[in-house]
Each structure stands twice: as structure tokens, then as C-alpha cells.
Amino acid sequence: MSYFRCTYFGQYGVANRIDPDQVKKVLNKTEELYVFLNSHADKKKSLRLIDSRLGTRQHKLAVCPAPILHYAEWTVLPQFFEMWIEHGATKFYLYHHSISPEVDALFRIYENDPRIDIERVPYGIIPVPENSSETEDVNQQIFGGEQVFAWNDCIIRSRGKTKYIALVDFDEVFVVLKNQSFLSVLENGLEAEPATGAFVFRSTPASYKHTYSNVTHPTQITFDNYGSIQVERRTFPAGIMSKVVVIPERILSTNVHLPWAMEAPFTEKVISPETSKILHLRCLSS
Question: Can you tell me the distance from the alpha carbon of 58 to that of 54, in angstroms, rounded to the nearest whole number?
């Protein structure tokens, strides 16, 4: 059997020696910003410059799930949105590559929800010839979707827009203990350690029975099955299945389960699982 490794992956760069006058012109749309390779200077791609200077933040908590690829399980999405709305989230960044019509319709329902703002970020399709077969189309082989790249882009994109941003997956339930709210966990942690730039939440495996196999409409969904979740006793250490909530201006880059690099002098804080933790859900057939 032959194995192939894809070496096509996303990258982001840091621009140095920026002329403030040119930046103003780009923001005012009197000039354009381009990116290109020195070896192919004729193949320029225009870039949209996002103003992320810190002003009056519109949101307290934003959520950025991993890139959505080949996704059709629309019945789990209401739980995801409602949980985060209950936690105080008012902004969602959705990096989408390939989704079913049902998932798109569910997203549109929440795009019309006055409680929240959803920003869809198209996640680039790799260009292939139009007559490519399914086996030759590399877009059909993508799995994982470079979530590290997307989440670092999301951190930069959210600067100046939100105080906190949660970098999460659809199969995670963040639970809060000791009669607190999710936002109070963050605020109390920041008050106790003002230099905190990233909060690390540890993970506990859990499972529940899927009861939505015959559901055809969102109104048929209830959350009753979440009342009988089977939770394991173990909680993984930080770095294994953990996830982070960051203050965008205080972090340089992140990995999936831990921050990579912080802006000086900021640090990361691991939240005690006795205060709040993740239930990492695995769905069992009913």
C-alpha cells in the first residue's frame, strides 16, 4: 500500500517597516495592498486590510470553531450555539470550506438571530482543473483543515472586536461549577492575575446517546439527551485535549491545545477543573 503526504498548507506572514501613510490609503481604499512571490511578481493577489486597532469593543466573548470541512451533522449545531449564547457569546467566526445544504440552512437561522453576530470566513478551496475526478481533487482529501492556521488568523481578525475569544470544537461542552457564569470565571481569573493573556481549560471525556437520527427539522430537536451524559472520572492534564480562551491582543500564536507564544509580559493561566472544564463529548448510537 502506498501512502501520500500532503505538503500544501496555509501560512501567514508578518509585515515589517510599514509606512503609516500607506496604511491609511489602503484603509481609505485609495490604494490597494498586494501579496506576491518574488519569483512570480506578475501574479499578485489583492488583500483586504482589516483595522484591528483597539477601540470600543463590540463584544465581550466571541467563539471560533475549527474550520468546517465536509460537514453534514447539522443536528449538533443548535446545542453548540445555544450553549455559547448562554455563556455570553455574541460573536461567532465560522471558517467554512464544505458544508451540506442543511448545515448552511442552520447557519442562516442563527445569522438571523438578533442576539448574535455571525461572520462567515470562506476557507480557501485549493484550485484544481475543472475536469478533475473526485480522486484527483485534493479538496476531497482534506481532513483537519489546518485549524492552527485558522485559529491564529481568527485571533488576529478578532483584535479590537472582542475581549475574549474561545477557540473550540463542536463536540465540546464547557461546564461551569460553583454557581458561576463562564464570563465570571474569565473575569475573576483576570482580576486575580492581571497579566493573563490566555486561559487553558482542561478536558474530561464524556459520552451521550444520539437521538436525532430521524430528525428532519430543527423544531424536533430537544436537549433532553444531555441530561444523561456519561462522564469519566479522569481529567486530562493541560495540553491533552485542552482548549484555550484568549485575549486577542495579548497572544502572538496558539496551537490546538495550548498557547504557543504570548505577547510580553502576558502569561497563560490553567483553569482548575473544579471551577470549569470541558466535557469532550463522544456520541453513541441510540
Answer: 11
What is the DSSP-derived secondary structure letter of residue 216?
Answer: -
Residue-range domain boundaries for the chain = 59-285
Mark residue 29 as left, alpha or beta (left: phi above 0; alpha: psi -120 to 50; beta: remaining): left
Q: Let me know how many helices (H) and strands (E) the chain has, helices first.
A: 5, 15
Residues 6+ apart with CB under 8 A from 286: 209, 210, 211, 213
- In which residue ranges of the chain is pLDDT below 50? none
DSSP 229-273: -EE-S--PPTTSS-EEEE-GGGEEEE-SSSEEEE-TT-EEEEEPT
Quick one: which of 115, 271, 88, 248 has its CA closest to 182? 88
Level-2 CATH architecture, domain 59-285: Alpha-Beta Complex (3.90)
Q: Looking at residue 159, what is its pLDDT?
A: 94
The CB density around residue 274, as the number of other CB atoms within 10 Å, is 9
pTM of the model: 0.87
